[in-house]
Amino acid sequence: MTDAPYRKLTWPLFIELIRLPAKLGSFLPFAFGVAYAWYSFHQFNWLNTLIYFIGQMSIALFVTGFNNVQDFYKAKDDHYRQTQNILGREHLAPHRILALMRVFLAIAVGAGLILVWRTNLSLLLIGGAAIFVAIFYTYGPVPLSRIPSGEVLAGMVEGFGTVFIAVFVNIVPQPIMLAFAGNHFSLSGNVPVILTVFLVALPIVILDGTLMFADNICDLAQDQRNQRYTLPYYLGKKRALRIYPWLPASAYVLIVLAVGLRFLPWLVLLVLLMWPRVRKNIQRFEAVQDKEKTFNTAVANMLLTSGTETILLIMAIGLNLAWPGVF
């Protein structure tokens, strides 16, 4: 960094810092979970949903901004720090960005504690685990993003975790209950509900993890210079590219399975119409792995699939209200 004064964080820079367009990827699991709670359990708690929306979006903003700060501090490659990381490139004050991210984290924690009070104490454990991953994904001596578990953790937390909590805050009784009586506590769970939510959320889990997988494939050389040893590093680029197309394909198979088991309405099968476009995006990425040119194909595949699936689920709910029993 030079000795020149730090730049002010303008709205355009803030939007780039937190990658606002990519936040749709955080919104879709939330929207899907809320819609699924209504479709499967016929329950909707608008206040809990609003509180969770505020908390979920706040933690999504925190994660992206915090990751940028940590990548700036931990970068071993000075060229990356000064020309590619937004803090170095735009000469933004790391301590100010970090302070702003702490505000978003505080909002998310506050929203979470309100929801714990309004639902069940078990949410404290679930939300606590998610926030732990959010913080230590890039923080600490061995950040989770620098070991070959980043894709799995990103998919599970932002995919299954978000969908599950969206269902959790909308239905009564909650699928997991933690209760205290004197010196004893009991933790119970509705296994069929938990497994069902996991299955319907699994395509989103896979597509979210695929997004991170594509990101790490594109950044493989840069990550090695910065001593980030992600899953593509251990697999090797050729093997990673052989695995890559099977991930979106498996998400589609799981959607068909969920419909076949009647966990989702048959209308959701129309998402299969998106497959040709998804396949074309996969082929584009297989041909060239570039953050600027083809990484957006992975983002598009998630939005096409999860977005269409969510819209179709909401449409099925609307049709069911108009003509009860049609789904």
Automatic annotation (TrEMBL):
It is a multi-pass membrane protein. InterPro entries: UbiA_prenyltransferase, UbiA_sf, UBIAD1. Keywords: Membrane, Menaquinone biosynthesis, Transferase, Transmembrane, Transmembrane helix. The chain crosses the membrane at residues 20-39, 46-66, 97-116, 123-140, 152-173, 185-206, 251-275, 295-323. It comes from the Bacteria. Pathway: Quinol/quinone metabolism; menaquinone biosynthesis. It is found in: Membrane. Pfam families: UbiA. This is UbiA family prenyltransferase. The lineage of its organism: Bacteria, Bacillati, Bacillota, Bacilli, Lactobacillales.
